[in-house]
Specification:
It contains 2 helices and 2 strands, in the order H-E-E-H. Keywords: Membrane, Transmembrane, Transmembrane helix.
């Protein structure tokens, strides 16, 4: 894949994590055309779990985009 595309994808994943931390909700899959969210107050374990997943994936893609 193109290094530019990989950098954009990595930054997008990190941006989703930062956006989730700022808004208190993080997207976690879909059910049909409706996006499922985990909220900081309702389910903190899954909320912070997805934040970590997005950060790890984003950093791994950026490091390997070369």
């Amino acid at each position: 894949m193109s290094p530019v595309f990989l950098k954009i994808a990595g930054l997008l994943a990190i941006g989703m994590a930062v956006f989730g931390l700022l808004t208190g909700k993080v997207p976690a899959g879909t059910r049909g055309f409706k996006t499922n969210y985990y909220h900081r107050n309702e389910n903190p374990f899954l909320f912070y779990g997805f934040i970590v997943i997005y950060l790890v994936i984003g950093m791994a893609v950026l490091v390997n985009s070369g």
